[in-house]
Specification:
Blueprint lengths: L4 H16 L3 H7 L4 H29 L1 H19 L5 H18 L2 H9 L5 H29 L1 H20 L8 H4 L9 H17 L1 H30 L4 H24 L1 H6 L1 H21 L2 H29 L5 H30 L2 H10 L1 H8 L22
Helix pairs in contact: 1-7, 1-8, 3-4, 3-5, 3-10, 3-16, 4-5, 4-6, 4-8, 6-16, 7-8, 7-12, 7-15, 10-11, 10-16, 11-15, 11-16, 11-17, 11-18, 12-15, 14-15, 14-17, 14-18
């Protein structure tokens, strides 16, 4: 059976993520950058991504998903070639900008591509299956990341660039959904003019915010992004300071990926139940995040490392469910922009995380990340468990209707 191209791209992205995620912060640390500098670089990344998210989503709705994905992938090739030759803060800033722009072009467009090819009733299962493929590839990448890094950090990042070059080739030969003739000439399709794109973005934001389920997703995305970014940004320096080896840090990511795979497999078997109350399912995951943050603060050694691995896994468990909720509810003419808006909300949370957790760590140490993180998960749990009202169910036809029609 032929594997869909979006699964192949998911595997390539997972392999790349597994190679760089365990070590890129430690790599910057080894280049003489302190925690404040790393925090500033992370904030720059998220600020640029935030600025690019909605415009690139509107461009995807105008150009089509293929061109946006090709542009983003080309920028990622440049990013990882440059990453291997970072010697100072200036070049690191340039690389962060190209990285953020590449991610912005791909976010939204990737989920929109899948949504255009897969029937609505199979969408949650497809997102979960795609995440499983992504995680299996991530496990393979994480297993070899420390080995390649010890031989040459530059070689590691050139391998990642080569994987994105392969992704370019896959996208060039992939199938994308065609717009219907009516939709291709619809007034909702944005032109490349600034005024038209701003109107398209405003209409997309209105669709998202007046949709009660979409508003709850926005809340859950914002606060969770703050927590997961804070943990991902500062757990590596903490492990370095404790004398943890590169192989052990790769092992943490490896363990996290195995946990994700287990939960995604379980989720794929429970798709029908998850679709009946998707945000409640995410809230259950978020309750687990609070418990794991407490475990990191109260334990040390191997139990703390395992809790960190589990925490790193939780974001990848909840994201496919939230993406499915938005993708199923978004009208095709504005789907990429609405998905990008949600990603932009996440980027805003990550910007706040860079400031808040950077100050906390500099004054109170890394443990403060987990204490404050547990508190910040409470709004996401409330948003997920609040009683559903009429109009809360995901509906592919609902977002384009008037507020009165949405109840």
């Amino acid at each position: 059976m032929r594997v869909p191209a979006y699964h192949v791209v998911g595997a390539l992205r997972g392999l790349s993520l597994g190679l760089f995620s365990p070590l890129w912060v430690a790599y910057l640390y080894s280049r003489g950058m302190d925690l404040i500098s790393i925090g500033l670089l992370g904030t720059l990344f998220e600020a640029v991504k935030f600025i690019f998210e909605v415009p690139t989503g509107a461009l995807a709705d105008h150009w089509g998903d293929r061109r946006s994905l090709l542009t983003g992938t080309a920028l990622m090739v440049l990013t990882w070639v440059g990453f291997g030759f970072i010697q100072g803060f200036g070049l690191a800033c340039v690389v962060m900008v190209t990285w953020a722009a590449g991610e912005a072009f791909m976010s939204g467009a990737y989920e929109s591509w899948i949504s255009g090819l897969v029937p609505e009733e199979r969408l949650t299962r497809t997102f979960l299956d795609n995440s499983r493929i992504n995680v299996i590839a991530l496990v393979l990448g994480a297993a070899g990341s420390g080995w390649i890094y010890q031989r040459s950090p530059t070689l590691l990042f050139l391998v990642i660039a080569a994987l994105f070059a392969v992704q370019l080739g896959v996208l060039l030969g992939a199938r994308f959904a065609s717009r219907s003739p009516e939709l291709a000439h619809a007034p909702e399709k944005p032109s490349l003019g600034l005024r038209s794109m701003m109107a398209h973005a405003r209409a997309s934001a209105s669709d998202l915010l007046r949709w009660r389920l979409g508003g709850r997703v926005a809340i859950m995305t914002l606060f969770a992004a703050m927590v997961f970014d804070g943990i991902a940004r500062f757990y590596q320096p903490a492990l370095v300071d404790r004398g943890t080896s590169p192989q052990a840090m790769g092992g943490v990511m490896f363990a996290a990926a195995l946990v994700v795979l287990l939960f995604l497999t379980l989720g794929a078997r429970l798709t029908a139940r998850i679709d009946r109350a998707p945000l409640a399912a995410v809230a259950v995951v978020d309750l687990g995040v609070v418990a794991l943050c407490a475990a990191v603060v109260l334990s040390s050694g191997a139990p703390a490392l395992m809790a960190i691995a589990l925490l790193l896994a939780m974001e990848d468990v909840r994201d496919p469910i939230l993406k499915s909720v938005i993708a199923r509810g978004a009208p095709q003419a504005r789907r990429a922009t609405i998905l990008s808006l949600v990603s932009g909300i996440g980027a805003a949370g990550e910007i706040l995380a860079g400031v808040i957790f950077g100050l906390l760590v500099s004054r109170l140490g890394e443990g403060s990340v987990f204490v404050v993180g547990a508190a910040l998960m409470l709004p996401t749990i409330i948003a997920g468990l609040v009683r559903r009202a009429a109009g809360d169910e995901p509906s592919a036809a609902g977002l384009g209707s008037s507020p009165q029609e949405k109840g």
